[in-house]
Amino acid sequence: MAKRLLFLFIPLLILTIAGAAVTIWIKFHTEGRSGKITGPVILAQIEEALEECIQAKDLALAEAQGILDGEKIQPQEAEEIEMPKESQEPETEQTSDREMEEVEDPDTNIAPKLRIVLDPGHGGPGTDDEQELGAIYRDTYEKYLTLEIAKAMEEELSKYGNVEVFLTRDSDRSLTLKERASYAKSVNGDLLVSLHLNASAEHNFYGSEVFVSAFDRFYARGAGVGGSILNQLTDYGFVSKGVKTRLGSKGADYYGIIRECKSLEIPALIVEHGYMDEDSDWSLMCTTEALRSLGQRDAAGLAAYFGLEKGNTLSELPELDEFIPSTTVLPDTTPPEEVWYKKEFQGNAQWLITLHGTDQESQVMYYDYSLNGGQTYSELKLWDEGETIQFTMMLTGEEDLIFRVYNNYELRTETD
User: Fold this and answer.
1) What stretch(es) of the chain map to CATH 2.60.40?
2) Looking at the domain covering 337-414, what would its CATH class be?
3) Exposure string (b/e) for 141-154, b if CB count within 10 Å is 16 or more?
4) Dihedral of the CA atoms 125, 126, 131, 134 (nearest 10)?
5) What does the pLDDT average to over 352-373?
6) Which residue from 18, 161, 176, 363 puts its CA 20 to 30 A from 71's CA?
7) 296-318: per-residue pLDDT in tens?
8) Any residues with CB less than 8 A from the CB of 258 and at least 6 apart, and which?
9) Where in the chain is the domain with CATH 3.40.630.40?
10) Least confident of 61-70, 181-190, 264-273
11) Helix, strand, or coil here: 394?
């Protein structure tokens, strides 16, 4: 019974206190104001004061009900009751501002962009450092030629949408392989393309080739872009030696730039455009115009692989169909197999030569021959398709004939 009387008494007490509170509140909030206190002002103040009293009453009733029921209001519920309306308004306004920013901010509508890092091979002021100079033939250094190619590739790629291009160097300066890879990481590069020209110990090889990582997605991306670039270079006149891998003694990628980039999660490839020390290749890169053509071809191959369009920015890039190997893509470490030849006399010193060679791990690439038992050899000749090729030779029949068959890893097998 006492609890019921308490429950009825509390609201009456609240209303009495509320009346007095309204009078005091109006006096307090109007004290010091200039001008007359008009009826509308008083009514507005009464309404505002009553609103606060009603909130106080509701809280008191809730507490009283809790007492009657033998329960307590949980802290979290009390916070929700006591939270003034004004405290939520700034949060609502901030949310609105954010939503407006999302609609008006152009950054959210920017098309995807590939960040391509071009790495002109070698570079530096040295006069006898092979790492800085690169290959040295025809009274020129590789480091100058790779920079010319890179600048032309950058210029050509800038004509396509959805791509940003960065150069590890744009002048003749020295950079370690780690510094080149670190730069690519610093600009959030999606791919690094290292540009080079080739040379061989016997000065007889020719053709374009690409080296890539031997591992998973790094292989997939490198091989995809590299194959597309090789298509452009063969159209230009080079022979393709293919996309290849090479491993070091510890089973990691052999080439430092590929290895360093992989450690930073960046796919990388090395484009060896052709051989500076071989006449047919050199004729395709011996002028500034020819070098610029190489850079333009590289750009076209890269753009074709990613589906970029010249003069147009796509809202979405085409999805790539990349083959990601589940195991290491091993290089070919064995020479061609089953290498033999036979000759048939055709008359008038003409002999029909049948030359056979196979390779299970890569492709048969070239052959050459010696007429004097291996003292000197002919220039390398390109192998046709298939395991067996035929051609005619002018022979006396007294020659000590030897043939050598090569795969695209430059490994060879000699006939008996």
Assistant:
1) 337-414
2) mainly beta
3) bbbbbbbbbbbbbb
4) 80
5) 97
6) 18
7) 999 999 999 999 999 999 999 99
8) 194, 211, 212, 213, 218, 222, 268, 269, 270
9) 114-306
10) 61-70
11) strand
Q: Can you tell me the distance from the alpha carbon of 145 to that of 133, in angstroms, rounded to the nearest whole number?
A: 10
Tokens of 243: 């996309």
Evaluate whether 378 touches 351 at the Cβ level (below 8 Å).
Answer: no
196 close to 255: Cβ distance less than 8 angstroms: no
Q: What φ, ψ does residue 361 adopt, rounded to 5°?
A: -105, -20
Residue 245 contacts residue 332 (beta carbons within 8 Å)? no
Based on its alpha-carbon atoms, the radius of gyration of the chain, rounded to whole angstroms, reads 40
More confident residue, 21 or 231: 231
384 SS3 class:
coil
pLDDT tens profile 116-175: 999 999 999 988 888 899 999 999 999 999 999 999 999 999 999 999 999 999 999 999
State the average pLDDT over residues 20-47: 42
E strand residue ranges, 121-218: 136-137, 140-141, 163-167, 191-198, 208-212
| pTM of the predicted model as reported, rounded to 2 decimal places | 0.74
N-to-C CA span, the chain: 122
**What confidence tens digit (pLDDT) does each residue in 260-276 have?**
999 999 999 999 999 99
Neighbours of 271 (CB within 10 A): 28
Does the pLDDT value for residue 240 go beyond 80? yes
Q: What is the pLDDT of residue 75?
A: 35
Domain 114-306's class? alpha beta
Element (H, E) at 414: strand 412-414
The residue among 107 and 382 whose pLDDT is bigger is 382
pLDDT of residue 129: 86
